[in-house]
Amino acid sequence: MIDNVNIAPALISRPGLTVVGKTVSLREPLDRKRNYFIIKRVFDIFFSLFFISLVLSWLLPLVALLIKISSRGPVFFFQKRIGHGGKSFTCFKLRTMVINSEADTRQASDDDHRITGIGWFLRKTNIDEFPQFFNVLLGHMSIVGPRPHMHADCAKFASVLPGYKFRNMVKPGLTGLAQIKGYHGPTTTLNCVLMRYHWDNYYIRNISWGIDCKIIFQTIIQRSIAIGKFALGNLQAKKNCLNDSLA
Q1: For the whole model, what pTM was predicted?
Q2: Would you list the domain boundaries of the chain?
Q3: 127-130 own/partner pairs: CB under 8 Å, 24+ apart
Q4: In this predicted model, what pLDDT tens digit does every residue of 117-150 receive, in sequence order?
């Protein structure tokens, strides 16, 4: 793996490979990994079925109740995202915001007033993205790959960085190399766009089972830590409130 770095736009590698003085499409080496993609799809199906039956079967009804209690509106949020080959698909999420007209055009920020109380927890722990295991099962996504963007963001990032849509050469993922490197959530700076593209580019050029396994393992660790920190933070806040009331 490559260490985190700040990277200038001029240093971001563009799609295409040079082999013995001849430029070839990156599609060519990906096509040679046909067996890898077949096995990857089989893994996606079994892993998503396993997670849906063992976790989502009881977690979704519980979270759905909390969402309905916290605010008016549907439990699920459906949004058009850019998928493999630039094709559009409906991405499934748990609703974390109040109903608003900017849901498909404006990214959420850390102090976004649109996010509900339970929504903060769902977003911090990424539980709001768990319904995307159904997208994986349907073949829209994979467990590992570049995160899918909504149409507005994809167009905006592509205007900043020519060749950005190159990341659509593989299926989008529930998690990816950019995410475990810390580039998840709102994309607020040019460097965030460049770094996400850098890691997505690196992943596609070096795609393998070894990298996939490392990403899955690291994602599990990071999400477990995030849930633990959120729980400890709430516990500490309640303890402070109790101390203040007794003072």
Answers
A1: 0.81
A2: 27-246
A3: 127/59, 127/63, 127/94, 128/93, 128/94, 128/95, 128/96, 129/93, 129/94, 129/174, 130/51, 130/55, 130/56, 130/59, 130/60, 130/94
A4: 888 889 888 899 999 999 999 999 999 999 998 8
